[in-house]
Amino acid sequence: MLNFRSPDVTPLVSLTNAGVRRNGRWLVRGVEFSIRRGEIVTLIGPNGSGKSTTAKTAIGVLKPDEGKVERVAGLKVGYVPQKLSIDWTLPLTVERLMTLTGPLKGREIEEALASTGMLHMAKAEVQHLSGGEFQRALLARAIARKPDLLVLDEPVQGVDFSGEIALYELIKQIRNRTGCGILLISHDLHIVMAETDTVVCLNGHVCCRGTPQAVSQSPEYLKLFGRRAAGALAVYSHHHDHTHLPDGRVLHADGSITESCFPGDGHHHHDEAENVHDHEPDCGCGHHTRLHGFDAAEKRDA
Amino acid sequence: MLDDFFIRALVAGIGIAMVAGPLGCFVIWRRMAYFGDTMAHSALLGVALSLLLELNLMVSVFLVASVVSMLLLFLQKRGALSTDALLGILSHSALSIGLVIVAFMTWVRIDLVGFLFGDILAVSEADIDIIWGGGILVIFALVYLWRPLLASTVNPELAEAEGLKPERARLFFMLLMALVIAIAMKIVGILLITSLLIIPAATARRFATSPEVMAVLASLIGALAVAGGLFGSLHWDTPSGPSIVVAALALFVLSLLPVGRLERASHTSYGGN
After folding, report:
1. Which of A216, A295, B17, B223 is the most exposed place for a label (fewest CB within 10 A)?
2. B153 contacts in A (CB within 8 Å)?
Protein backbone atom coordinates (compact mmCIF):
# COMPACT_ATOMS: atom_id res chain seq x y z
CA MET A 1 0.00 0.00 0.00
CA LEU A 2 1.18 3.50 -0.71
CA ASN A 3 1.53 5.81 2.22
CA PHE A 4 0.20 9.36 1.92
CA ARG A 5 2.33 10.85 4.67
CA SER A 6 5.81 9.57 4.04
CA PRO A 7 7.97 11.91 1.98
CA ASP A 8 8.06 9.50 -0.94
CA VAL A 9 10.55 10.53 -3.57
CA THR A 10 9.77 7.68 -5.96
CA PRO A 11 7.61 9.08 -8.75
CA LEU A 12 4.13 7.58 -9.10
CA VAL A 13 4.63 7.69 -12.84
CA SER A 14 7.65 8.59 -14.89
CA LEU A 15 7.96 8.81 -18.65
CA THR A 16 11.36 8.56 -20.27
CA ASN A 17 11.67 9.49 -23.93
CA ALA A 18 8.18 8.05 -24.47
CA GLY A 19 6.62 8.07 -27.94
CA VAL A 20 3.36 6.78 -29.42
CA ARG A 21 3.02 5.91 -33.09
CA ARG A 22 -0.23 5.31 -35.00
CA ASN A 23 -0.53 4.47 -38.69
CA GLY A 24 3.12 5.27 -39.34
CA ARG A 25 2.90 8.69 -37.73
CA TRP A 26 4.27 9.76 -34.38
CA LEU A 27 1.44 11.26 -32.32
CA VAL A 28 3.89 12.30 -29.70
CA ARG A 29 7.57 11.63 -29.18
CA GLY A 30 10.36 12.20 -26.70
CA VAL A 31 8.12 12.92 -23.73
CA GLU A 32 9.81 13.12 -20.36
CA PHE A 33 8.22 13.99 -17.06
CA SER A 34 7.33 12.42 -13.77
CA ILE A 35 4.68 12.94 -11.14
CA ARG A 36 5.27 12.47 -7.45
CA ARG A 37 2.77 12.27 -4.64
CA GLY A 38 1.24 15.70 -3.95
CA GLU A 39 2.56 17.12 -7.19
CA ILE A 40 0.47 18.77 -9.90
CA VAL A 41 1.71 18.50 -13.47
CA THR A 42 -0.18 20.41 -16.17
CA LEU A 43 0.04 19.42 -19.84
CA ILE A 44 -0.71 22.20 -22.31
CA GLY A 45 -0.50 22.46 -26.10
CA PRO A 46 -2.61 23.14 -29.18
CA ASN A 47 -5.23 20.70 -30.51
CA GLY A 48 -3.71 17.47 -31.74
CA SER A 49 -0.47 18.09 -29.90
CA GLY A 50 -0.65 14.77 -28.08
CA LYS A 51 -1.81 15.87 -24.62
CA SER A 52 -4.46 13.18 -24.22
CA THR A 53 -2.19 10.60 -25.87
CA THR A 54 0.53 11.45 -23.36
CA ALA A 55 -1.85 11.20 -20.41
CA LYS A 56 -3.21 7.87 -21.65
CA THR A 57 0.33 6.57 -22.07
CA ALA A 58 1.19 7.66 -18.55
CA ILE A 59 -1.67 5.64 -17.04
CA GLY A 60 -1.21 2.59 -19.27
CA VAL A 61 -4.25 2.90 -21.55
CA LEU A 62 -1.81 3.26 -24.46
CA LYS A 63 1.47 1.42 -24.73
CA PRO A 64 4.51 3.50 -25.69
CA ASP A 65 6.09 2.48 -29.01
CA GLU A 66 9.43 3.78 -27.84
CA GLY A 67 10.88 4.92 -24.56
CA LYS A 68 9.78 3.86 -21.13
CA VAL A 69 6.82 4.44 -18.84
CA GLU A 70 7.26 3.36 -15.26
CA ARG A 71 4.48 3.20 -12.70
CA VAL A 72 4.78 2.23 -9.05
CA ALA A 73 3.31 -1.18 -8.34
CA GLY A 74 -0.37 -1.12 -7.41
CA LEU A 75 -0.88 2.46 -8.59
CA LYS A 76 -4.54 3.41 -8.21
CA VAL A 77 -5.67 5.81 -10.90
CA GLY A 78 -8.74 8.06 -10.93
CA TYR A 79 -9.46 9.18 -14.47
CA VAL A 80 -11.73 11.86 -15.90
CA PRO A 81 -11.62 11.42 -19.69
CA GLN A 82 -11.92 14.31 -22.11
CA LYS A 83 -15.00 13.06 -23.90
CA LEU A 84 -17.62 10.99 -22.22
CA SER A 85 -21.10 10.63 -23.58
CA ILE A 86 -23.49 8.27 -21.88
CA ASP A 87 -26.16 6.83 -24.13
CA TRP A 88 -29.69 7.80 -23.14
CA THR A 89 -30.67 4.12 -23.10
CA LEU A 90 -28.41 3.49 -20.09
CA PRO A 91 -30.28 4.37 -16.88
CA LEU A 92 -27.50 5.71 -14.69
CA THR A 93 -27.92 7.91 -11.65
CA VAL A 94 -25.08 9.97 -10.21
CA GLU A 95 -25.02 7.58 -7.26
CA ARG A 96 -24.69 4.52 -9.51
CA LEU A 97 -22.02 6.25 -11.58
CA MET A 98 -19.83 6.42 -8.47
CA THR A 99 -19.38 2.65 -8.25
CA LEU A 100 -18.82 2.18 -11.97
CA THR A 101 -15.32 0.73 -11.77
CA GLY A 102 -15.25 -0.59 -8.21
CA PRO A 103 -17.34 -1.02 -5.07
CA LEU A 104 -17.49 1.81 -2.53
CA LYS A 105 -19.02 2.27 0.91
CA GLY A 106 -22.07 4.53 1.18
CA ARG A 107 -20.08 6.94 3.32
CA GLU A 108 -17.31 7.22 0.70
CA ILE A 109 -19.86 8.02 -2.00
CA GLU A 110 -21.49 10.69 0.15
CA GLU A 111 -18.16 12.29 1.05
CA ALA A 112 -17.02 12.51 -2.56
CA LEU A 113 -20.35 13.91 -3.73
CA ALA A 114 -20.45 16.40 -0.89
CA SER A 115 -16.92 17.63 -1.60
CA THR A 116 -17.84 18.40 -5.21
CA GLY A 117 -21.19 19.90 -4.22
CA MET A 118 -23.16 17.17 -5.95
CA LEU A 119 -24.75 15.44 -2.97
CA HIS A 120 -28.18 16.93 -3.70
CA MET A 121 -28.02 15.43 -7.21
CA ALA A 122 -27.23 11.86 -6.10
CA LYS A 123 -30.52 10.47 -7.42
CA ALA A 124 -30.50 12.43 -10.69
CA GLU A 125 -29.87 10.64 -13.97
CA VAL A 126 -26.54 11.67 -15.46
CA GLN A 127 -28.14 12.49 -18.81
CA HIS A 128 -30.11 15.28 -17.12
CA LEU A 129 -27.06 17.05 -15.72
CA SER A 130 -25.63 20.27 -17.13
CA GLY A 131 -22.06 20.32 -18.46
CA GLY A 132 -20.62 21.68 -15.22
CA GLU A 133 -22.62 19.31 -13.04
CA PHE A 134 -21.55 16.35 -15.15
CA GLN A 135 -17.87 17.33 -14.83
CA ARG A 136 -18.28 17.58 -11.06
CA ALA A 137 -20.01 14.20 -10.95
CA LEU A 138 -17.14 12.66 -12.93
CA LEU A 139 -14.63 14.31 -10.62
CA ALA A 140 -16.50 12.99 -7.59
CA ARG A 141 -16.42 9.51 -9.12
CA ALA A 142 -12.69 9.72 -9.73
CA ILE A 143 -11.82 10.91 -6.21
CA ALA A 144 -14.26 8.63 -4.37
CA ARG A 145 -12.00 5.65 -5.06
CA LYS A 146 -9.14 7.48 -3.29
CA PRO A 147 -6.64 7.30 -6.14
CA ASP A 148 -2.88 7.72 -5.84
CA LEU A 149 -2.91 9.57 -9.14
CA LEU A 150 -5.75 11.71 -10.43
CA VAL A 151 -5.78 12.29 -14.19
CA LEU A 152 -8.04 15.09 -15.40
CA ASP A 153 -8.34 15.58 -19.15
CA GLU A 154 -9.65 19.13 -19.66
CA PRO A 155 -11.82 19.15 -16.55
CA VAL A 156 -12.93 22.75 -17.08
CA GLN A 157 -14.35 22.25 -20.58
CA GLY A 158 -17.92 23.48 -20.89
CA VAL A 159 -17.59 25.26 -17.57
CA ASP A 160 -17.84 29.06 -17.37
CA PHE A 161 -15.10 31.22 -15.94
CA SER A 162 -16.31 31.32 -12.34
CA GLY A 163 -16.99 27.58 -12.54
CA GLU A 164 -13.41 27.10 -13.74
CA ILE A 165 -12.05 28.98 -10.72
CA ALA A 166 -14.27 26.93 -8.39
CA LEU A 167 -13.11 23.69 -10.01
CA TYR A 168 -9.44 24.66 -9.62
CA GLU A 169 -10.09 25.49 -5.96
CA LEU A 170 -11.65 22.05 -5.58
CA ILE A 171 -8.73 20.27 -7.27
CA LYS A 172 -6.35 22.11 -4.97
CA GLN A 173 -8.35 21.02 -1.92
CA ILE A 174 -8.35 17.42 -3.12
CA ARG A 175 -4.59 17.50 -3.53
CA ASN A 176 -4.06 19.08 -0.11
CA ARG A 177 -6.42 16.69 1.64
CA THR A 178 -5.45 13.40 0.03
CA GLY A 179 -1.91 14.14 -1.09
CA CYS A 180 -2.46 12.41 -4.41
CA GLY A 181 -0.51 13.30 -7.53
CA ILE A 182 -2.46 15.14 -10.23
CA LEU A 183 -1.97 15.14 -13.98
CA LEU A 184 -4.03 17.96 -15.43
CA ILE A 185 -4.62 18.65 -19.11
CA SER A 186 -5.52 22.23 -19.92
CA HIS A 187 -6.96 23.74 -23.08
CA ASP A 188 -5.48 27.09 -22.19
CA LEU A 189 -1.93 27.71 -23.38
CA HIS A 190 -1.09 30.60 -21.12
CA ILE A 191 -3.23 30.43 -18.02
CA VAL A 192 -2.85 27.36 -15.81
CA MET A 193 -3.92 26.33 -12.34
CA ALA A 194 -1.90 28.28 -9.77
CA GLU A 195 -0.90 25.21 -7.76
CA THR A 196 0.79 23.62 -10.77
CA ASP A 197 4.30 22.46 -9.95
CA THR A 198 5.39 21.74 -13.51
CA VAL A 199 3.93 22.82 -16.83
CA VAL A 200 4.78 20.65 -19.84
CA CYS A 201 4.03 22.28 -23.20
CA LEU A 202 3.50 19.71 -25.94
CA ASN A 203 3.32 19.92 -29.71
CA GLY A 204 4.12 16.39 -30.83
CA HIS A 205 7.05 16.55 -28.44
CA VAL A 206 7.97 18.58 -25.38
CA CYS A 207 8.31 22.16 -26.63
CA CYS A 208 9.16 23.62 -23.28
CA ARG A 209 8.55 23.10 -19.61
CA GLY A 210 8.74 25.13 -16.45
CA THR A 211 6.90 26.56 -13.51
CA PRO A 212 4.08 29.08 -13.85
CA GLN A 213 4.16 32.55 -12.41
CA ALA A 214 1.44 33.56 -9.98
CA VAL A 215 -1.16 35.88 -11.45
CA SER A 216 -1.44 37.65 -8.12
CA GLN A 217 2.06 39.05 -8.66
CA SER A 218 0.94 40.92 -11.74
CA PRO A 219 -1.34 43.94 -11.26
CA GLU A 220 -2.54 43.72 -14.88
CA TYR A 221 -3.86 40.21 -14.42
CA LEU A 222 -5.37 41.06 -11.07
CA LYS A 223 -7.36 43.76 -12.84
CA LEU A 224 -8.33 41.38 -15.63
CA PHE A 225 -9.43 38.37 -13.56
CA GLY A 226 -10.27 39.75 -10.12
CA ARG A 227 -8.73 38.80 -6.81
CA ARG A 228 -10.50 35.46 -6.30
CA ALA A 229 -9.57 34.23 -9.75
CA ALA A 230 -6.01 35.40 -9.36
CA GLY A 231 -5.52 33.03 -6.43
CA ALA A 232 -6.48 30.06 -8.53
CA LEU A 233 -4.72 30.94 -11.78
CA ALA A 234 -1.14 31.38 -12.87
CA VAL A 235 0.58 32.56 -16.02
CA TYR A 236 2.86 30.25 -17.93
CA SER A 237 5.59 31.82 -20.03
CA HIS A 238 6.66 29.75 -22.99
CA HIS A 239 10.28 29.67 -24.00
CA HIS A 240 10.67 27.89 -27.32
CA ASP A 241 13.80 27.48 -29.38
CA HIS A 242 11.85 26.48 -32.48
CA THR A 243 8.64 27.19 -34.38
CA HIS A 244 6.12 24.72 -35.80
CA LEU A 245 5.49 25.76 -39.41
CA PRO A 246 2.00 25.34 -40.91
CA ASP A 247 3.17 22.47 -43.15
CA GLY A 248 4.29 20.44 -40.14
CA ARG A 249 8.00 21.16 -40.55
CA VAL A 250 9.96 22.76 -37.77
CA LEU A 251 12.03 25.94 -37.88
CA HIS A 252 14.79 25.94 -35.28
CA ALA A 253 16.44 28.86 -33.54
CA ASP A 254 19.62 28.29 -35.52
CA GLY A 255 17.68 28.84 -38.75
CA SER A 256 17.61 25.21 -39.87
CA ILE A 257 14.39 23.48 -40.90
CA THR A 258 13.70 19.82 -40.16
CA GLU A 259 10.87 17.49 -41.12
CA SER A 260 10.03 16.59 -37.58
CA CYS A 261 10.95 17.60 -34.12
CA PHE A 262 12.23 15.24 -31.48
CA PRO A 263 15.11 15.26 -29.03
CA GLY A 264 17.27 13.05 -31.21
CA ASP A 265 17.60 15.63 -33.98
CA GLY A 266 20.15 17.68 -32.11
CA HIS A 267 18.38 21.01 -32.36
CA HIS A 268 16.97 21.15 -28.91
CA HIS A 269 18.49 22.47 -25.78
CA HIS A 270 15.81 21.68 -23.26
CA ASP A 271 17.24 22.95 -20.05
CA GLU A 272 14.68 23.27 -17.36
CA ALA A 273 16.44 26.03 -15.49
CA GLU A 274 16.65 28.13 -18.62
CA ASN A 275 12.91 28.04 -19.04
CA VAL A 276 12.09 29.28 -15.60
CA HIS A 277 12.16 32.98 -16.20
CA ASP A 278 9.95 35.85 -15.18
CA HIS A 279 8.35 38.15 -17.69
CA GLU A 280 6.83 41.51 -17.09
CA PRO A 281 3.30 41.60 -18.48
CA ASP A 282 4.30 44.14 -21.12
CA CYS A 283 7.58 42.56 -22.13
CA GLY A 284 6.21 41.95 -25.60
CA CYS A 285 6.94 38.26 -25.65
CA GLY A 286 3.38 37.61 -26.69
CA HIS A 287 2.61 35.10 -23.99
CA HIS A 288 0.65 37.10 -21.55
CA THR A 289 -2.48 37.89 -23.45
CA ARG A 290 -4.72 34.90 -23.36
CA LEU A 291 -6.46 36.17 -26.48
CA HIS A 292 -3.30 35.57 -28.48
CA GLY A 293 -3.15 32.42 -30.55
CA PHE A 294 -0.51 29.84 -29.90
CA ASP A 295 1.07 30.37 -33.29
CA ALA A 296 1.47 34.07 -32.79
CA ALA A 297 3.18 33.47 -29.50
CA GLU A 298 5.47 30.89 -31.02
CA LYS A 299 6.47 32.94 -34.02
CA ARG A 300 7.63 35.77 -31.85
CA ASP A 301 9.76 33.35 -29.95
CA ALA A 302 11.56 32.11 -32.98
CA MET B 1 -55.31 -29.01 -22.82
CA LEU B 2 -51.77 -28.02 -23.70
CA ASP B 3 -49.64 -30.42 -25.64
CA ASP B 4 -46.20 -31.59 -24.62
CA PHE B 5 -44.50 -29.89 -27.55
CA PHE B 6 -46.05 -26.60 -26.53
CA ILE B 7 -44.89 -26.90 -22.90
CA ARG B 8 -41.41 -27.70 -24.20
CA ALA B 9 -41.43 -24.61 -26.43
CA LEU B 10 -42.66 -22.46 -23.54
CA VAL B 11 -39.98 -23.70 -21.12
CA ALA B 12 -37.30 -23.28 -23.77
CA GLY B 13 -38.55 -19.83 -24.82
CA ILE B 14 -38.65 -18.50 -21.27
CA GLY B 15 -35.13 -19.83 -20.71
CA ILE B 16 -33.98 -17.89 -23.74
CA ALA B 17 -35.81 -14.72 -22.69
CA MET B 18 -34.02 -14.82 -19.32
CA VAL B 19 -30.58 -14.54 -20.92
CA ALA B 20 -31.70 -12.36 -23.82
CA GLY B 21 -32.82 -9.63 -21.38
CA PRO B 22 -29.48 -8.59 -19.84
CA LEU B 23 -27.56 -9.36 -23.02
CA GLY B 24 -30.02 -7.27 -25.03
CA CYS B 25 -29.49 -4.34 -22.65
CA PHE B 26 -25.80 -4.35 -23.54
CA VAL B 27 -26.65 -4.61 -27.23
CA ILE B 28 -28.71 -1.42 -26.87
CA TRP B 29 -26.27 0.44 -24.61
CA ARG B 30 -23.33 -0.38 -26.85
CA ARG B 31 -25.31 0.31 -30.04
CA MET B 32 -24.57 -3.15 -31.37
CA ALA B 33 -27.96 -4.07 -32.84
CA TYR B 34 -26.60 -4.50 -36.33
CA PHE B 35 -23.63 -6.39 -34.96
CA GLY B 36 -25.99 -8.88 -33.30
CA ASP B 37 -27.88 -9.17 -36.57
CA THR B 38 -24.69 -10.02 -38.41
CA MET B 39 -23.80 -12.73 -35.92
CA ALA B 40 -27.32 -14.14 -36.12
CA HIS B 41 -27.33 -14.19 -39.91
CA SER B 42 -24.08 -16.11 -39.91
CA ALA B 43 -25.96 -18.83 -38.00
CA LEU B 44 -27.36 -20.15 -41.27
CA LEU B 45 -23.81 -20.78 -42.41
CA GLY B 46 -23.45 -22.70 -39.16
CA VAL B 47 -26.55 -24.74 -39.99
CA ALA B 48 -25.20 -25.55 -43.46
CA LEU B 49 -21.79 -26.57 -42.11
CA SER B 50 -23.36 -28.74 -39.43
CA LEU B 51 -25.27 -30.65 -42.13
CA LEU B 52 -22.27 -30.85 -44.42
CA LEU B 53 -19.79 -32.00 -41.77
CA GLU B 54 -22.34 -33.81 -39.60
CA LEU B 55 -21.58 -31.69 -36.53
CA ASN B 56 -23.92 -30.87 -33.66
CA LEU B 57 -26.15 -28.02 -34.81
CA MET B 58 -25.76 -25.71 -31.81
CA VAL B 59 -22.00 -26.26 -31.58
CA SER B 60 -21.62 -25.49 -35.26
CA VAL B 61 -23.74 -22.32 -35.05
CA PHE B 62 -21.85 -21.16 -31.96
CA LEU B 63 -18.49 -21.68 -33.66
CA VAL B 64 -19.48 -19.88 -36.86
CA ALA B 65 -21.01 -16.92 -34.98
CA SER B 66 -17.87 -16.66 -32.83
CA VAL B 67 -15.57 -16.76 -35.84
CA VAL B 68 -17.62 -14.08 -37.62
CA SER B 69 -17.49 -11.78 -34.58
CA MET B 70 -13.72 -12.27 -34.23
CA LEU B 71 -13.31 -11.62 -37.94
CA LEU B 72 -15.23 -8.40 -37.55
CA LEU B 73 -13.07 -7.29 -34.62
CA PHE B 74 -9.99 -7.99 -36.71
CA LEU B 75 -11.30 -6.09 -39.75
CA GLN B 76 -12.38 -3.18 -37.52
CA LYS B 77 -8.84 -2.91 -36.17
CA ARG B 78 -7.43 -2.74 -39.69
CA GLY B 79 -9.79 0.15 -40.26
CA ALA B 80 -10.00 0.01 -44.06
CA LEU B 81 -13.82 0.13 -44.19
CA SER B 82 -16.38 1.55 -41.81
CA THR B 83 -17.94 -0.86 -39.32
CA ASP B 84 -21.26 -0.30 -41.04
CA ALA B 85 -20.02 -1.50 -44.41
CA LEU B 86 -18.12 -4.42 -42.87
CA LEU B 87 -21.25 -5.56 -41.06
CA GLY B 88 -23.26 -5.38 -44.27
CA ILE B 89 -20.69 -7.46 -46.12
CA LEU B 90 -20.27 -10.10 -43.42
CA SER B 91 -23.95 -10.35 -42.54
CA HIS B 92 -25.35 -11.02 -45.97
CA SER B 93 -22.46 -12.98 -47.36
CA ALA B 94 -22.56 -15.40 -44.42
CA LEU B 95 -26.31 -15.82 -44.90
CA SER B 96 -25.93 -16.31 -48.66
CA ILE B 97 -23.04 -18.76 -48.42
CA GLY B 98 -25.17 -20.77 -46.01
CA LEU B 99 -28.12 -20.79 -48.42
CA VAL B 100 -25.90 -21.74 -51.36
CA ILE B 101 -24.30 -24.63 -49.46
CA VAL B 102 -27.73 -25.87 -48.41
CA ALA B 103 -28.91 -25.73 -52.05
CA PHE B 104 -25.93 -27.83 -53.13
CA MET B 105 -26.71 -30.54 -50.63
CA THR B 106 -29.49 -32.17 -52.61
CA TRP B 107 -29.36 -35.22 -50.37
CA VAL B 108 -30.64 -33.34 -47.30
CA ARG B 109 -34.08 -31.86 -46.85
CA ILE B 110 -34.18 -28.97 -44.46
CA ASP B 111 -37.01 -26.81 -43.27
CA LEU B 112 -35.53 -23.44 -44.21
CA VAL B 113 -38.52 -21.46 -42.92
CA GLY B 114 -38.15 -23.20 -39.56
CA PHE B 115 -34.52 -22.08 -39.30
CA LEU B 116 -35.22 -18.53 -40.45
CA PHE B 117 -38.34 -17.85 -38.39
CA GLY B 118 -38.32 -20.46 -35.61
CA ASP B 119 -40.34 -23.60 -35.14
CA ILE B 120 -41.92 -24.52 -31.83
CA LEU B 121 -42.40 -28.10 -32.96
CA ALA B 122 -38.65 -28.51 -33.30
CA VAL B 123 -37.85 -28.15 -29.57
CA SER B 124 -36.83 -31.44 -27.99
CA GLU B 125 -36.17 -32.27 -24.35
CA ALA B 126 -32.46 -32.37 -25.08
CA ASP B 127 -32.77 -28.83 -26.46
CA ILE B 128 -34.35 -27.68 -23.20
CA ASP B 129 -31.43 -29.13 -21.24
CA ILE B 130 -28.99 -27.27 -23.47
CA ILE B 131 -30.97 -24.01 -23.35
CA TRP B 132 -31.26 -23.99 -19.56
CA GLY B 133 -27.74 -25.30 -19.02
CA GLY B 134 -26.30 -22.77 -21.46
CA GLY B 135 -28.59 -20.05 -20.11
CA ILE B 136 -27.43 -20.50 -16.52
CA LEU B 137 -23.83 -20.44 -17.75
CA VAL B 138 -24.49 -17.15 -19.57
CA ILE B 139 -26.15 -15.60 -16.49
CA PHE B 140 -23.21 -16.55 -14.26
CA ALA B 141 -20.74 -15.19 -16.79
CA LEU B 142 -22.70 -11.93 -17.03
CA VAL B 143 -22.79 -11.49 -13.26
CA TYR B 144 -19.04 -12.08 -13.16
CA LEU B 145 -18.35 -9.71 -16.06
CA TRP B 146 -20.96 -7.11 -15.12
CA ARG B 147 -18.71 -4.38 -13.76
CA PRO B 148 -16.02 -4.41 -16.49
CA LEU B 149 -18.71 -4.71 -19.17
CA LEU B 150 -20.77 -1.83 -17.81
CA ALA B 151 -17.73 0.38 -17.18
CA SER B 152 -16.36 -0.21 -20.66
CA THR B 153 -19.80 0.49 -22.12
CA VAL B 154 -19.63 3.93 -20.52
CA ASN B 155 -16.00 4.46 -21.57
CA PRO B 156 -13.44 1.75 -22.42
CA GLU B 157 -10.46 3.97 -21.64
CA LEU B 158 -11.86 4.85 -18.24
CA ALA B 159 -12.33 1.15 -17.49
CA GLU B 160 -8.80 0.36 -18.66
CA ALA B 161 -7.25 3.26 -16.72
CA GLU B 162 -8.90 2.13 -13.51
CA GLY B 163 -7.70 -1.45 -13.74
CA LEU B 164 -10.58 -3.30 -15.43
CA LYS B 165 -10.02 -5.26 -18.62
CA PRO B 166 -12.39 -3.89 -21.28
CA GLU B 167 -10.92 -5.91 -24.17
CA ARG B 168 -11.34 -9.18 -22.34
CA ALA B 169 -14.87 -8.24 -21.29
CA ARG B 170 -15.74 -7.43 -24.90
CA LEU B 171 -14.35 -10.75 -26.12
CA PHE B 172 -16.40 -12.69 -23.58
CA PHE B 173 -19.45 -10.64 -24.47
CA MET B 174 -19.09 -11.70 -28.12
CA LEU B 175 -18.85 -15.34 -27.09
CA LEU B 176 -21.95 -15.00 -24.91
CA MET B 177 -23.81 -13.47 -27.86
CA ALA B 178 -22.75 -16.38 -30.06
CA LEU B 179 -23.93 -18.82 -27.40
CA VAL B 180 -27.34 -17.17 -27.07
CA ILE B 181 -27.77 -17.09 -30.84
CA ALA B 182 -26.96 -20.80 -31.02
CA ILE B 183 -29.50 -21.74 -28.36
CA ALA B 184 -32.22 -19.25 -29.39
CA MET B 185 -32.22 -20.16 -33.08
CA LYS B 186 -34.81 -22.93 -32.88
CA ILE B 187 -37.38 -20.82 -31.07
CA VAL B 188 -37.16 -17.38 -32.66
CA GLY B 189 -35.29 -18.18 -35.86
CA ILE B 190 -32.13 -16.73 -37.32
CA LEU B 191 -33.67 -13.59 -38.77
CA LEU B 192 -35.44 -12.53 -35.59
CA ILE B 193 -32.99 -13.31 -32.77
CA THR B 194 -31.85 -9.71 -32.42
CA SER B 195 -35.40 -8.49 -31.94
CA LEU B 196 -35.75 -10.75 -28.89
CA LEU B 197 -32.59 -9.10 -27.59
CA ILE B 198 -33.57 -5.52 -28.37
CA ILE B 199 -37.33 -5.07 -27.99
CA PRO B 200 -37.72 -6.30 -24.37
CA ALA B 201 -34.66 -4.24 -23.35
CA ALA B 202 -36.05 -1.14 -25.05
CA THR B 203 -39.38 -1.69 -23.32
CA ALA B 204 -37.63 -2.05 -19.96
CA ARG B 205 -35.71 1.21 -20.38
CA ARG B 206 -38.77 3.31 -19.70
CA PHE B 207 -39.31 1.77 -16.28
CA ALA B 208 -35.70 1.22 -15.23
CA THR B 209 -33.92 3.25 -12.57
CA SER B 210 -30.56 1.48 -12.82
CA PRO B 211 -28.75 -0.78 -15.31
CA GLU B 212 -29.41 -3.79 -13.09
CA VAL B 213 -33.14 -3.12 -12.82
CA MET B 214 -33.29 -2.71 -16.59
CA ALA B 215 -31.62 -6.09 -17.14
CA VAL B 216 -34.05 -7.92 -14.83
CA LEU B 217 -37.08 -6.12 -16.28
CA ALA B 218 -35.96 -6.97 -19.82
CA SER B 219 -35.85 -10.66 -18.86
CA LEU B 220 -39.37 -10.56 -17.43
CA ILE B 221 -40.77 -8.63 -20.37
CA GLY B 222 -39.07 -11.07 -22.75
CA ALA B 223 -40.59 -14.04 -20.92
CA LEU B 224 -44.02 -12.43 -21.18
CA ALA B 225 -43.52 -11.86 -24.92
CA VAL B 226 -42.43 -15.48 -25.41
CA ALA B 227 -45.50 -16.79 -23.61
CA GLY B 228 -47.85 -14.46 -25.49
CA GLY B 229 -46.24 -15.17 -28.83
CA LEU B 230 -46.29 -18.95 -28.41
CA PHE B 231 -49.95 -18.95 -27.45
CA GLY B 232 -50.68 -16.85 -30.54
CA SER B 233 -48.57 -19.15 -32.66
CA LEU B 234 -50.51 -22.18 -31.43
CA HIS B 235 -53.86 -20.48 -31.77
CA TRP B 236 -53.45 -19.01 -35.25
CA ASP B 237 -50.92 -21.52 -36.56
CA THR B 238 -48.31 -18.82 -37.25
CA PRO B 239 -44.52 -19.32 -37.14
CA SER B 240 -43.30 -18.98 -33.55
CA GLY B 241 -40.52 -16.42 -34.14
CA PRO B 242 -42.63 -13.68 -35.75
CA SER B 243 -45.44 -14.30 -33.25
CA ILE B 244 -43.08 -13.73 -30.32
CA VAL B 245 -41.70 -10.56 -31.94
CA VAL B 246 -45.25 -9.25 -32.51
CA ALA B 247 -46.08 -9.93 -28.84
CA ALA B 248 -42.89 -8.12 -27.77
CA LEU B 249 -43.80 -5.20 -29.99
CA ALA B 250 -47.28 -5.06 -28.44
CA LEU B 251 -45.69 -4.82 -24.97
CA PHE B 252 -43.36 -2.10 -26.23
CA VAL B 253 -46.26 -0.06 -27.61
CA LEU B 254 -48.19 -0.56 -24.37
CA SER B 255 -45.19 0.69 -22.40
CA LEU B 256 -45.25 3.94 -24.34
CA LEU B 257 -48.70 4.86 -23.10
CA PRO B 258 -48.38 5.82 -19.41
CA VAL B 259 -44.72 6.70 -19.57
CA GLY B 260 -45.06 10.47 -20.01
CA ARG B 261 -46.60 10.77 -16.58
CA LEU B 262 -44.03 8.48 -14.97
CA GLU B 263 -41.10 10.45 -16.30
CA ARG B 264 -42.49 13.78 -15.22
CA ALA B 265 -43.11 12.41 -11.75
CA SER B 266 -39.51 11.23 -11.41
CA HIS B 267 -38.29 14.62 -12.65
CA THR B 268 -40.05 16.55 -9.94
CA SER B 269 -38.67 14.24 -7.28
CA TYR B 270 -35.13 15.35 -8.22
CA GLY B 271 -36.11 18.90 -7.36
CA GLY B 272 -37.36 17.82 -3.97
CA ASN B 273 -34.04 16.29 -2.98
Report:
1. A295
2. 90
